[in-house]
Amino acid sequence: MLTEINFDGIVGPSHNYAGLSLGNLASAKNAGKVARPRAAALQGLAKMRANLERGLAQGFFLPQRRPDEGWLRQLGTDMAAASAPLRANALSASSMWAANAATVSPGPDTADGRCHLTVANLVTMPHRSHEWRETLAQLQIAFANEAHFAVHPPVPAPFGDEGAANHMRLCAGHDRPGIEVFVYGESGGPFPARQHREASAAVARLHALAPERTVLALQSEAAIAAGAFHNDVVAVANERVLFTHEQAFADREGLYTELRGKLPEIEIVEVPASAVSLADAISSYLFNAQLVTLPSDEMALVLPGEARETPAVWQWLEAHVAGNGPIRHLFVHDLRESMANGGGPACLRLRVVADPATVDPRFIATPEKLSAIEALVARLWPEQLAVEDLASPALWHELVAARAALCRELGLEELDRGAF
Ligand code: SUG
Questions:
Q1: Which of 90, 164, 348, 395 could form a disulfide with 67 if both were Cys (CB 3.0 to 4.6 A apart)?
Q2: pTM higher than 0.85
Q3: Domain made up of 3-242+338-416: CATH architecture
Q4: Given the CA of residue 92, which atom of ligand 1 is nearest to it?
Q5: Per-residue pLDDT tens for 195-240?
Q6: 231 CB under 6 A from ligand 1?
Q7: Which keywords does the record carry (predicted)?
């Protein structure tokens, strides 16, 4: 049976605050702070476990091999000789944000009835631009069943593609044909627009989506300038519900009208700027919550603690739940370590609508497997990581060994062979 499976990125042992993401205010603000990779990974695993206990299907992707020496070799250098910025780029744990791994079009939306996944090229940010090789390798293993899945390599540079973070699907139910909304940026004040229209259009073509059920929408410049480097920082969709900030899109009325025409049962829950400012929405990650349908058929938001700590945001949420809105439950999680680099609950997961039985079981979470991963993380992930530590050869070896141990634990040694 087709269900939504959330694949969370397991946070890698090299999680650190090098401040690499221009336009991501949290990353800039926390640059130079001491990170806690072990706590970061355990926070993510606790969220996965809780979602599993809520009756949701849960999968995961492995952290990538860091440092990425293959990438440095392509640049004619290695960890010993590289400059500090290049070294930090080679060490980033940013593949944890699985919403940027790929764009996913489930079978009911595509011409051949298979679920299509296009790996994101992430070309705008150097530290993310080398993720795609291993992401492709993991997706080719997890979704190797060609009767059900088609995995595409990234669209070529220079067309920036940041994956599902700029893609929303609206539908009457996950297993029904959906409207796929591709959100791109053109300008963002002082910040780069990371998702290019040409890349979005290419993904829609590659996935053979019906043009009448495909929408291209321009992100508002104000949102990018305020720190919404991905659209999932200001809007999220689930089944018939679009939950969005008033200032997310350049032409909100035009978009809403188009969506209402394509999916009459759509429910648009818009938070006005007068209730929650863009600044509060972005620092609290109100919209980077996971909007999920529980087995009871009610919708819930899986939120970061920062949402509860932001008075305007929490007030709006409490009023919505007390009223007659479609969101019936609020679940709050401590994801402080990921949040400090600009990654909330929704950034950490890639949604795939598929029959879990068609996915390689090594990527599917069970309570026992999560316990085994937690034990390994508690043993092998550094407790603390400062930016100065990134220069330590002993650390590089420790990081490679820790990740190799996880590959072995999960029976995915093939991911540890060769450089990606
Ligand atoms: O690409 N942060 C990520 C956060 C990604 C969040 N994802 C979604 N919104 N879906 C980014 O900016 C920080 C890395 C650093 O500074 O070390 C970073 O890459």
A1: 90
A2: yes
A3: 5-stranded Propeller (3.75)
A4: 17
A5: 999 999 999 999 999 999 999 999 999 999 999 999 999 999 999 9
A6: no
A7: Arginine metabolism, Hydrolase
